[in-house]
Design brief:
By secondary structure, this protein is mainly beta. The protein contains one helix and six strands, in the order H-E-E-E-E-E-E. Strands 1, 2, 3, 4, 5 and 6 form a six-stranded antiparallel sheet that branches.
Length: about 130
């Protein structure tokens, strides 16, 4: 079974829904959601399964310790993006040589982050 067949909790049913909010001037907004910013725009249009090279939050690459990170989904309602990262931990987390937990091999780590907190994102270009 594919990792992406299960519902990731990103509530994609709201993808086409438009907000009924009105701007200060009384003109109805055409925004589809409340997630603003260039990173949110990129994630909103990203395809599930796209490989991510780096995600910077507060000037730090939060993917520095992982091998591969894949985009799973984006929730337009909460502005949260979900990713799965794979780490070849060798001996497990918490130190080398098998002293940590995880038992060796590859571990999958699912994480969610608010797109408004991301400084920049590096997306792998596919030919």
């Amino acid at each position: 079974m594919s990792l992406f067949q299960n519902d990731c909790g990103c509530n994609n049913s709201v993808a086409g829904a438009q907000s009924n909010r009105r701007s200060v001037a009384g003109v109805q907004s055409n925004r589809r959601d409340e997630c603003e910013g260039c990173v949110c725009d990129q994630l909103r249009n990203l395809t599930t399964g796209t490989e991510i090279e780096a995600i910077f939050v507060n000037g730090r690459d939060i993917l520095d310790d992982v091998d591969d990170t894949i985009f799973v989904c984006f929730d337009r309602k909460t502005c949260c993006a979900t990713f799965v990262a794979e780490k070849d931990n060798g001996g497990g987390y918490g130190g080398g040589g098998g002293g940590g937990y995880g038992g060796g091999g590859n571990d999958r780590i699912f994480f969610t982050i608010d797109c408004r907190k991301i400084d920049t994102i590096f997306i792998e270009k596919r030919n």
